[in-house]
Design brief:
Chain A has 192 residues and is mainly α. Chain A contains six helices and no strands. The termini of chain A are far apart. With 379 residues, chain B is α/β, with parallel strands linked by helices. Chain B is globular, with a radius of gyration of 20 Å. The chains are: A mainly alpha (192), B alpha/beta (379).
Amino acid sequence: MTYTPQRPPISESSDQLRARIPGWGVDLDPKNRPSVPKLQYQEDLTGAHWEFPERQPEKWPRERSPEHKFLTPVFGTACPPHGLSGAIRRFAYHYSEGRAAHWLLLMAADRVDAVESHLKSFLTPHPDNPITETGVLSEFSHHGLASRFGQKRADLKHQPLDPIIVGGPWILAGGLVYVACRALKKGIGSRS
Amino acid sequence: MVYRGPYKIRAEEKDVPAIEHPNDAIVRVQLAAICGSDLHLYHGMLPDTRVGMTFGHEFIGVVDEVGSSVRNLQRGDRVMVPFNIFCGTCWYCARGLYSNCHNVNPNATAVGGIYGYSHTCGGYDGGQAEYVRVPFADVGPSRIPDWMEDEDAVLCTDALATGYFGAQLGDIVEGDVVVVFGAGPVGLYAAKCAWLMGAGRVIVIDHLEYRLEKARTFAQAETYNFTEYDDIVVHLKKLTDFLGADVAIDAVGAEADGNFTQHVTSAKLKMQGGSPVALNWAIDSVRKGATISVMGAYGPIFSAIKFGDAMNKGLTLRMNQCPVKRQWPRLFEHIRNGYLKPSEIVTHRIPLEHISEGYHIFSAKLDGCIKPLVVPTAG
């Protein structure tokens, strides 16, 4: 009972649980848990035979967080920055991870990258195809309706609104840019 | 698998990765998985996710090539690769914090290196591919034990290890009431592993009936669908005689449903690093002085978390990406003893060329999908 010293009883005893659930309590002793104790020095270094690893060659000026003293000895080379999105990304890395600007610029760069890459794809033999690339055809082959209706899913409440919520800010931003450009053009026209 | 922008991916030919560091290996992928946290990338939640990137941090395969300084692996070895990329010798690795390695991710200090998980996590291509570059091959990968099946092995590279780690972070003592938010793969494993650590009662909360059914049969848990209750926090308090749970595990992360405003501002409008609905429910539903374990993945931007309540209740919040390799020896024992059978939660096996459908099925939760595996053509 919560308002008295005793804790509320559990309906099954440890012995009953041990009988019902294979392996119940085998890691009851924290000593058997792999991450205990925390921050214990690992003598074997998991097979490393270096104290500081050899450095991977830097093939282009690799962007890095200003919170790092130097470029880490190993890094990924999946997608070097390119185009306008690349310029925004390089700029974002002037800010530390503690600054909202860093993350917001990277998010903006991601959206610019998506638009840039989408447009660029039309110059290739393999243009983007929103039907196949969104996997939406699986709605017909994998029980799209039956998976949703009568299932008490919480996400059904917002699914019809999602396209408006996601697309709305972009349409609004586009409208604002259009209005700003028109005002600018008008201003230049009235001065000349 | 190549990312083309939010909600768009396709299978396309890319160059076979090359050795870029003397301790690299190239692994020919035999089996990969799609992780719930891949969906955060797919939905454009994680900053610096670049078009052209290959996702996938859960994979096993065969060593195809090794760099000049690799000593512990050779061509033809069948290996499982933990999702963390780590050097083994930095301050963090030397103390077992492999997921926080300081030598592999120049893009950020707040997170380590992860395969196929954006440039915020180091810019490494992932394993939903035919070939993948594996840095620090002497440190990360392990040969798969002969007795272990491929589908069990691939699930040890993240989902199972993370679930087990999440239960550990809960500091469970005998008889504890453990509530797990989220009945996805990690939540299911966390619930299952909570019993191994001596939980007296394991409760799982979700809104998808088929996942709750799995929580009952696979994890022997007591389950509740939060859509059936006006206030799931009050319901959990009632279930525990108004005390609250001793331990809560957040196995949901960035795209939690259940609160319209939070979901819209985070998952849809990306104004938060994640929708903390599950985390806030965890904070509210535990007793004072309880422990909260967080393994659900959140983005780096702020989220509206009820920190004041956590402080006033004297809660201990524990969290990290799982240092996978540290969990393996004990997990292997449990699998061998029959206490865990990871592949029991696999529902879909998708050829790599149908990866777009695979992501949509998993993301939209169609067809009773709990855990999809990806089978590369060359595997």
